Amino acid sequence: MGKKDKFALSKRELDVMNVLWEEGKPMIASKIPEKRPELSINTVQSVLKNLLQREFIEVADIVQSGTVLSRSYAPVITPEEYAMKYVTSEIFPFGRFASKVRYLSALFDSTENNEELIEELEKFIQERKQQ
Amino acid sequence: MALTPTSLLTCLISSALFTVLTWMLLKVDVTLKTVGRYICFFLAIIVVRMLLPVEFGFTITLSSRHILTELKELLLSGVSFGTYDITAGEVLRFIWIAGAVGAVLIRIVQHRCFVRMLERCTGYFRHDIRTIIDRINKDYGKDKHFQVLLVPQMRTPAIYGLAQPKILMPHNDYTEKELNFILGHEMMHYYHRDMLVKMLCEILCIVYWWNPIVHLLRKIIARVIEINVDCRLTAGFSNEEKIEYLECIVKSMKEGAQPKSAMMIMFASQRGSAMKQRFQCIWDNHWLDKGRKGFFIALASCLLLLVSVSFIVEADYDIDIPGTFEYPDSETSYLIESDRGYEVYIEEEWIGWVKEITEPFTELEIYKDKENITNEE
Q1: Is B216 in contact with A118 (Cβ distance < 8 A)?
Q2: Domains and CATH numbers, chain A
């Protein structure tokens, strides 16, 4: 696993971002705990402040919520951009070492070249399409 | 129940035979068409047998003078490490345990790193994923919550987790229909408890880390699990839908090879003949053919298991040991002092050791060694 990136989101921040990403449109703070009951409104307010400061979200609009006006927030970064930028650690440390033994079982397989195999499988599909 | 070197050896030999037999059966398309999913029974008995390398009260012991005697003597031969004298068998046992402990530690570290990495992953929000999951759950008559995560390091979709399942999606741009196939496939793995089977295989691989047959067994089980899920999922598909499903697998494969892991089941991780066979099975779909075959194969599997635990082969030595002896006569019987007490000779023939001289040996002559007897004579 690589060194933890200090600019990556904390668990709570990621929870709030996930709600905003899932919703797909700007949300006001009070709506977020409705989607994730484990997040209190105080936590959400504090997390939103952090996210705003770190420019992960922006104020999209000022909307009327009941009798008062509220800010609505929208993510600045997409989940794909975030993943590519911050989730960069290796999946399996010692992967190569641990999988050495598994190469033994690969001896029992006749075709190990992935490109050749894909070509064969595509040919299989084409033949079935023409039937 | 007792765990002995020979019970372990018998277990290893029988499970190796069964594994190779299953592997050969899987290689033949005709067998796959006729017995198909019932191969699971064979696999189950192999796993059970490997988890029970013991001899039971009803186990019959067979004697063999071939190989086993030499092997036993080799294991009992002494090895010196400085001032320590141990047997070759003890050295092998130490290497075995150390290897297993090492394998466990590697997996624990890998698991922790993997979980930490997942904690940093965002959700997967393409094509109204929640609605697709709810619809598939409804089709399966279940209501489990599945978390879907975007994991850029993944090349192919996978499922992970026993209690709180997570579906891990790569960066690929899948269509809504392809997502239906992928999620349906991964969720079926979860509902069939395939993760548990995978964990069980992993335990076997840790315990028997040095045994290539166990790694072959894991590979066979992974292949059967995938074919089983594919065939169940595509059972009601039209030919056009089957083609779309196969194209979805190829699309996942094109992203490149994915590092395999014990922690998850992947959508398109197999290579070579396994993948070709998977395609053939999806297209033909003989896997779910019903009939009495299942009953007979299950019966045969149980009988095989019973046979494999009913016999054990022990090393036989060329020593004839009578069960009873004549009462010692002081003329022809005597004792010789030794480190273990006294060696007993009756009618000039060595019988065994005694620690103390009690009846019926009190009347016998005691000698320092064999030479003393000759001198006195």
Answers
A1: no
A2: 11-130 (1.10.10.10)
